[in-house]
Amino acid sequence: MKKEKFDIQGMTCSSCSSRVQNAVCKLNGIKSADVNLLTNSMNVEYDENILDTSKIISAVVDAGYGASIKNDISSSSLEFDKTINNMKKRLTLSILFLIPLMFIAMNHMMWNVTNSLFLAITEFILLLPIIYLNRNYYIIGFKRLFKLSPNMDSLIAIGSSAAILYGVFAIYMIARGISYGNNELVLKYPSDIYFESAGMILTLVTVGKYLETKSKGRTSDAISKLICLTPKKSVVLRDDNEIEIDTEEILVGDIVIIKPGTSIPVDGVVIEGSSSIDQSSITGESIPVEKNIGDKLVSGTINKAGYLKMKAEKVGQNTTLSQIIKLVEEASSSKAPISRLADKVSSVFVPVVIIIAILSAVFWILKGQSFEFALSIGISVLVISCPCALGLATPVAIMVGTGKGAQNRYTYKISRKFRITSQSRYSYIW
Q: In whole angstroms, what is the distance from residue 147 CA to residue 270 CA?
């Protein structure tokens, strides 16, 4: 069995991650597939004699999303920073336009026969920038809907679009009432304008997306900082000559020169010299530990003063630091049982809401109510369902979950692999 990690593009909610996971799990040769919305990644274990990465990527693409082999952490971190800045700008501008929009919509004393049309058009003009800033919800949402795999964006797109179209219809009826001198018509339809609801939906969901994106960036940044503990270049002794090579090229048995102030690139044992080693990045110890001939050295720690020669024992993905990074990535990608249950609920939530909205409208038409009233009921169901737990509360929970709870989970997993003795020395328990 082979394990592979993929970057997934286009996921916006739990139903998306569930759909990608189901599409991959249907492939012959898949042992397990775990899709993580937080990191936009997928861990797959499969039989390489039956499957290859191209077939897995094709399955994800057929489900309506993008996939590629996992990129370098550092480049992913830069992408996250760019995304966070764009989200913050989008959210700020959305709020700036939403505030006056809500003020006009909620101040009922302003609405009268003479200015109803002006205020309604003003609301629509204030809504247009919010729609443009958050247009991705419509692009992705309707795309998923046309593929018969609606997600949370589809619900947002349908609900806000219905509110906007009905608001435009209300403007037309107000204008008609003014033209025919029908004051009752002019005063009736301002209450049926849902422009502020559409703007609030888009802005609230963007708040959730922003918090979620920040938590993703924080996770990526934490892993990047761990990676930076390992030096890019190292000095090794070969044929009695000191040469500088890439750290990845160090082999087991190589003699590595550790100069004062440099990081230790791999795990090994001291064969010459003595020094104090700052192990705070790995063990949390605030006081450097003295190392002499025969003592173990751990990758990612820093040589404070002395000159050391060490024999490499664990290199590449087998070093202590690499194992810690792997554990952190696995911890961030793992799912709790309740999260798996949420994925199952989310996969049917959107279609069920759409069906309920349609049935509600049909019910009131059969009860003898006007088409306008029935339509407003259907729109209300869609609008109320948009900023739901999947759209706002889940990102907030993820934001909190990547704080102390996640740190404790990482510490627990790491502590099962590594144990610090009372003398503050590493004991390897592989």
A: 61
Alpha carbon distance 218, 80 (integer Å) = 9
Q: 55, 28 in Cβ contact below 8 A?
A: no
Q: What are the pLDDT digits (tens) for 249-262?
A: 888 888 999 988 88
Q: Are residues 162 and 141 in the same domain?
A: yes
Alpha helices (H) along 63-112? 73-106
- Return d(Cα 273, Cα 288) in angstroms, integer: 16
Q: Global pTM?
A: 0.66
* CATH code (residue 249): 2.70.150.10
Q: Domain boundary at 318, 349, 379, which? A: 318
Domain count, the chain: 3
| Residues with pLDDT less than 70, the chain | 12-15, 38-39, 71-80, 215-224, 329-347, 386-430
Quote the domain boundaries for residue 313.
233-318
pLDDT in tens, 143-185: 878 877 777 788 888 888 888 988 899 899 999 998 888 888 8
